[in-house]
Design goal:
37% of the residues lie in helices and 19% in strands. With 202 residues, the chain is an alpha/beta fold. Strands 1, 2, 3, 4, 5, 6 and 7 form a seven-stranded mixed sheet that branches.
């Protein structure tokens, strides 16, 4: 009997493309696990101008996330650039609108992981990862990090932590992804997909 294909949601916000690169590597890791599919989604930017609106479909990149994407997923990878040691307002705004899913428990028991990019090496990578974990804990998700069995975690000088994948992108997002950061992002995707598959076993 064939195992059903699992859908792992890779939800991110990216201004300069660095967080999107991490999302792509996490998706690569997910799809290296047989029977697992990565669904890439993003969130719309927010504005202090009340009249500002976004088109229903972004000009480029992944489609905007819907609440159905959350309900239908078998696991979640959540990513945001750092904003003063916190997740970006656009991502926080999205999670603030998920009260119905919190009440129904639609995410409870599903595995999740987090990832981020920062403008400076000590610009709040780990605190941002922790802020993204908080709404996931409230939703009852099972949080995954990166174990030190990954050699790159001990060697990296560019990002990556036991809390999740990360990348030092530079102030304008132009710093290239290092091999360590790439390998840790792929490993995080593999871990998420493998865990989701294990949780589906009777």
């Amino acid at each position: 009997m064939n195992k059903p294909e699992l859908t792992l949601l890779v939800l991110y916000y990216s201004r300069h493309g660095a967080t999107k690169k991490l999302a792509d590597f996490i998706a690569q890791g997910i799809e290296s696990v047989p029977g697992c599919h990565a669904r890439l989604r993003t969130v719309a930017p927010v504005s202090t101008v009340c009249e500002a609106v976004e088109a229903d479909i972004p000009e480029s990149g992944a489609p905007y996330v819907s609440l159905n994407d959350l309900r239908d997923c078998d696991g979640l990878a959540l990513g945001s650039p750092t904003r003063f040691g916190n997740m970006a307002a656009a991502m926080k705004y999205f999670w603030d609108g998920t009260a119905a899913d919190w009440l129904s428990g639609s995410l409870a028991g599903k595995p999740a992981c987090v990832f981020t990019s920062t403008g400076s090496l000590h610009g709040g990578q780990e605190s941002t990862l922790l802020t993204m974990m908080l709404p996931l804990l409230h939703h009852g998700m099972l949080l995954l990090g990166l174990p030190y069995s990954h050699p790159a975690l001990m060697a990296t000088a560019s990002g990556g932590s036991p809390y999740g994948a990360s990348h030092w992108a530079g102030a304008d997002g132009s710093r290239p992804m290092t091999e360590d950061s790439k390998q840790l992002a792929i490993a995080l995707g593999v871990r998420l997909a493998t865990t989701a598959r294990q949780l589906q076993q009777p």
